[in-house]
Amino acid sequence: MSESNTCSVLVHAPAPPGGRSAAGGNQVDWATIDAGPAAIAVVHRDIKPADILLTGPASAPVAKLADFGLAKAFDRAGLSGHTMTGSSAGTMAFMARPQLTDYKFARPEVDVWAIAATLYYMLTGQTPRQFPRGSDPIAVVLREDAIPIRSRNPEIPQRLAAIIDEALIDRPNIRIVSANELPQALLNAL
């Protein structure tokens, strides 16, 4: 998949006239994204900027989620026998701690966390956790909390930052668990 038509490209693209919008990176309206995989009882388990395709005109792109290669029906978790206990897959930089510790039984809230991590990346150009060169990415996910977004980009409005930071709390549990709750909270913050 080419990055030229994904959200990844917006992070490194020149800012549009008037600058980047804290509500939507360059152009994508994150607050109106639909319920996504959870609406069809599926947990994606690998949401990241490269998996969010942009379609439609450049003036009003529509974000669509792609690459369901690791997806599973969460209501049947553990019943297929395909995912071995103790296994893990996905992109560590956009992975919530509960997905790593219980991959076989991952719930939709790991996708909500990954959407918040993707938004964080779109607004800062960095992932929520720091992965120092030579570090064990599994250890980073298990031990490190997300860095507050305003530490990386102080121009983000405080109310919006608070929602993103809350959505990235995953210890002991993920705080924002519904794919409908996150966009509503984002809209309320704007």
UniProtKB/TrEMBL annotation:
| Stored SMART domains | S_TKc (SM00220)
Location of the Protein kinase domain = 1-187
Against InterPro entries, the record matches this protein to: Atg1-like, Kinase-like_dom_sf, Prot_kinase_dom
Domain of life per record: Bacteria
What Gene Ontology terms describe what this protein does at the molecular function level?
A: kinase activity
Give UniProt keywords alphabetically: Kinase, Transferase
Q: Where is this region: Disordered?
A: 1-23
Pfam families xrefs: Pkinase
What name does this protein carry?
A: Protein kinase
Organism name? Nocardia jiangxiensis
